[in-house]
Amino acid sequence: xxxxxxxxxxxxxxxxxxxxxxxxxxxxxxxxxxxxxxxxxxxxxxxxxxxxxxxxxxxxxxxxxxxxxxxxxxxxxxxxxxxxxxxxxxxxxxxxxxxxxxxxxxxxxxxxxxxxxxxxxxxxxxxxxxxxxxxxxxxxxxxxxxxxxxxxxxxxxxxxxxxxxxxxxxxxxxxxxxxxxxxxxxxxxxxxxxxxxxxxxxxxxxxxxxxxxxxxxxxxxxxxxxxxxxxxxxxxxxxxxxxxxxxxxxxxxxxxxxxxxxxxxxxxxxxxxxxxxxxxxxxxxxxxxxxxxxxxxxxxxxxxxxxxxxxxxxxxxxxxxxxxxxxxxxxxxxxxxxxxxxxxxxxxxxxxxxxxxxxxxxxxxxxxxxxxxxxxxxxxxxx
Length: 383
Known about the structure:
By secondary structure, the protein is an alpha/beta fold. It is 30% helix and 23% strand. It has helices at residues 48-54, 79-85, 102-112, 117-130, 146-158, 176-193, 204-207, 227-230, 234-239, 246-257, 268-282, 351-355; strands at 5-14, 22-32, 37-42, 63-68, 71-72, 86-89, 164-168, 196-200, 212-217, 220-225, 308-317, 325-335, 366-371, 374-375.
């Protein structure tokens, strides 16, 4: 099979006037097969994003070649074809959205191709459906959650009908739910539409679902292969300052203690199944392992009045307009002296809106925000 992307002895050096040159890529040789789901991993500064930007000619090689299908990225005459073949989604969705309405943003690319109105409409409808954003087509992008914004960016790329989707840290700014949404969409596109997916990431949850991992360090590819094989190189990955999935560590530790235990497991379900099999083979019931200690540590008593208190807090965006959104409603939070408080919630749940009332960045529309006894509902109060 002919690779859809081929990299040959690729070097890239960043050169700024007055600064020393920085060698970001050092002799990369790589091939991406059509229909693959590839994840590129590496510590900050390893060169993974620089490599990704070569895939659609955003960067030009200092030396070596990058081929997309039959086109060399060095040839200006083919840049348009290359960028229609390879679409990119970046880390910050706000930097990619160009319109004030979701469907207009998705239509921006096809409009610039000069396509007929009917074809643009078809592509917008199809792209919205692929990322499950049809209900938001007339919504203003700045009112969407981070995960929803990134789905709009993916839809905008899909409207160009690329054969390759490159996601350069596209989930880095999202919460776990948002990351799962984007990852699920990428896999569905790969599985159902045959789109080749290349994801640059540092999240192991994304890595374990790939067909192939490419590990980079100091501008070079140091390791590549299927996740089950790669994650057995625990010491090497740690030396490269990369995380290792806890499941992989546990599986390898159990394999060393019990050679019959598989060393290449990737999911908790696989661990559970292998453990049950080991129990059965040894004639041991798993009841002892399932015993839970009922003696819970006593909670530390809270001392003093709350330093922060949100009382029946509500806040609206675009209030008193047709686009009004109620971001938080009837929120009650007390934070006491010396407490360590975590606030959890999916993208769009109102976490950031709530905490921006802690120091007066936002003011309550309903209810109260008390900080050190000062009522921030009063616009004359500043902390």
